[in-house]
């Protein structure tokens, strides 16, 4: 089955009792046993739920993986992966990870004895040089949020394998439409399904996909034990979102390419970062491992913070909002919004300048998106 067929059809069988074309929303906490010791494969929804199972199988299928696990949020998916580790273990992590992920590592997990080293994962040598005897996990985001750094997954996959270190990839920005990290040696692929996978700002959710039975068993155990599970209705909304994933991503991608090229030519814009532009430092790696560049762009204005504020307050079609990956174009100021919890000196060291603006390009007509930016840039 080709990818654009899979997203629509995989795991979809008409409901045996009614013929309903969509999987029913099994909104139940528990299941009645036929007799002692005899259930129908379900006992309690924290352990498993038929609607969630449809989503989990679909997630595995679209990542071309064996096992999918759905979580209550992207953060609980990350947290569950970290629960594969023990106190004293060391993690090497991309330096430009999602703000919520670094907050989780630095303000919660360090209290449980986990150690973290942040490196620019777009340079695989920096990962290899950071390996310590207790390094148990390499965790990369590609493209990163918000600087859109690209990690060469094949190179890092080889490093992880030769040192017998687990390799996890947060593939939220790329989606399985454009990137399949398992094919490059990742052991764990993680998504915030809140973003492109569900695609309409309708739920908070997360996912992990793996080919390894041992990791799947451990993660299932974590999922049911800590209860980091999405509700059946959220699972159903995510299934619905995934049906149009392929269509949406292709539109996000072509729109973002057009917007990035427009911004790059604009005199008031000093820098545009988009993996689909030849000016991106990892353009060749991105082109080799991805089949498209997705919908996220970051840019800086020559007028710095005041110009950034003017643009963000002047856009009309683009919504000033946290989050990304939905059908609507959204615009964010990382320094005051998504990355406000990262201390200013650390932000600047990482290249997260106060003038940086991030756009999640939606699926509207690209001319309208560009016209909106044009009128806002005129005021800056
Ligand atoms: C949003 C996001 C997360 C966190 O996911 P939630 O669903 O908000 O908990 C993690 N990683 C990336 C790259 C994200 O964009």
Which keywords apply here?
380 residues; alpha/beta; Aspartate Aminotransferase, domain 2; Aspartate Aminotransferase, domain 1; seven-stranded mixed sheet; five-stranded mixed sheet; 14 helices; globular; binds pyridoxal-5'-phosphate
Short description:
This protein has 380 residues and is an alpha/beta fold. The protein has 14 helices and twelve strands.
Structural overview:
This protein has 380 residues and is of the alpha/beta class. It is built from 14 helices and twelve strands. The strands form two sheets. The protein has a seven-stranded mixed beta sheet with strand order 1-7-6-5-4-2-3, with helices on both faces. The radius of gyration is 21 Å and the shape is globular. It has two domains: 3-243, 3-Layer(aba) Sandwich (Aspartate Aminotransferase, domain 2), CATH 3.40.640.10; 246-378, Aspartate Aminotransferase, domain 1 (Alpha-Beta Complex). The termini are far apart. It has helices spanning 3-9, 50-62, 74-82, 99-107, 124-129, 153-162, 175-178, 213-226, 232-243, 245-264, 283-289, 304-314, 344-349, 366-379; strands at 67-71, 90-94, 115-119, 135-141, 166-170, 188-192, 206-210, 269-273, 296-301, 319-320, 330-332, 356-360. Pyridoxal-5'-phosphate binds next to helix 3 and helix 4.
What proportion of the residues is helical, as a percent range? 25-40%
CATH topology-level fold name of the largest domain: Aspartate Aminotransferase, domain 2
The ligands found in this model are: pyridoxal-5'-phosphate
Amount of beta strand: 15-25%
The geometry reads as globular
Number of strands: 12
Query: In total, how many domains does the architecture comprise?
Result: 2
Q: How many helix segments?
A: 14
Spell out the helices and strands N to C: HHEHEHEHEHEHEEHHHEHEHEEHEH
Question: How many whole angstroms does the radius of gyration measure?
Answer: 21 Å
Mean pLDDT over the residues: 96
CATH class of the largest domain: Alpha Beta
Secondary structure category: alpha/beta
Query: What's the architecture of the largest domain, going by CATH?
Result: 3-Layer(aba) Sandwich
Largest sheet: 7 strands, mixed
Q: Describe the oligomeric state of these chains in a short phrase.
A: single chain
- Please report the distance between the alpha carbons of the first and last residues: 49 Å
């Amino acid at each position: 089955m080709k990818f654009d067929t899979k997203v629509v059809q995989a795991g979809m069988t008409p409901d045996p009792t009614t013929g309903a074309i969509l999987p029913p929303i099994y909104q139940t906490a528990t299941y009645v046993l036929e007799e002692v010791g005899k259930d129908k494969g379900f006992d309690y929804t924290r352990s498993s739920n038929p609607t969630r199972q449809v989503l989990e199988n679909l997630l595995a299928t679209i990542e071309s993986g064996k096992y999918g696990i759905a979580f209550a949020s992207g953060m609980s998916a990350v947290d569950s992966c970290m629960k594969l580790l023990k106190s004293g273990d060391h993690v090497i992590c991309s330096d430009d990870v999602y703000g919520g992920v670094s907050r989780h590592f630095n303000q919660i997990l360090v209290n449980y004895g986990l150690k973290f080293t942040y490196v620019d994962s777009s340079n695989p040598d920096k990962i290899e040089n950071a390996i310590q005897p207790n390094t148990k996990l390499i965790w990369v985001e590609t493209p990163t949020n918000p600087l859109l750094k690209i990690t060469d997954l094949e190179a890092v996959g080889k490093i992880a394998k030769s040192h017998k270190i687990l390799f996890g990839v947060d593939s939220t920005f790329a989606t399985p439409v454009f990137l399949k990290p398992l094919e490059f040696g990742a052991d764990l692929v993680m998504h915030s399904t809140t973003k492109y996978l569900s695609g309409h700002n309708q739920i908070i959710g997360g996912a992990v996909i793996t080919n390894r039975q041992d990791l799947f068993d451990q993660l299932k155990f974590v999922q049911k034990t800590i209860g980091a599970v999405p509700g059946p209705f959220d699972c159903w909304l995510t299934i619905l979102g995934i049906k149009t994933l392929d269509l949406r991503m292709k539109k996000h991608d072509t729109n973002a390419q057009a917007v990035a090229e427009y911004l790059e030519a604009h005199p008031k814009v000093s820098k545009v970062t988009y993996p689909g532009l030849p000016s991106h430092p990892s353009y060749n790696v991105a082109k080799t491992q991805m089949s498209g560049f997705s919908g996220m762009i970051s840019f800086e204005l020559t007028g710095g913070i005041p110009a950034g504020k003017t643009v963000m307050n002047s856009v009309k079609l683009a919504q000033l909002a946290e989050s990304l990956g939905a059908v609507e174009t959204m615009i964010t100021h990382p320094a005051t919004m998504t990355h406000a919890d990262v201390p200013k000196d650390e932000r600047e060291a990482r290249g997260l300048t106060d003038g940086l603006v991030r756009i999640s390009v939606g699926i509207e007509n690209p001319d309208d998106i560009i016209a909106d930016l044009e009128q806002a840039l005129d005021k800056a």
